[in-house]
Write a structure and sequence with these properties.
The chain is of the alpha+beta class and 61 residues long. It has one helix at 20-32, and strands at residues 2-6, 14-18, 37-41, 59-60.
Length: 61
């Protein structure tokens, strides 16, 4: 599972959890519409965070 955050979604970034099979389509859609996104591995509900080390652990595309 991955967490994708749409960074250009107004005042609050919109976040969506998606499987590996869905992430490529979501990133492609964002690219076609000029929307910046951050994709991070999702560790599961209730953990309060996503996987990663120092920094935000995401990749801006």
């Amino acid at each position: 599972m991955y967490e994708i955050t749409y960074l250009d979604a107004g005042t609050e970034p919109a976040t969506h959890t998606a499987g590996a099979d869905e992430i490529g389509d979501l990133v492609a859609w964002a690219g076609r519409h000029g929307v910046k996104v951050r994709v991070r591995p999702y560790t599961g509900p209730g953990s309060g965070h996503v996987a990663g080390g120092a920094g935000d652990g995401g990749e801006r595309l």
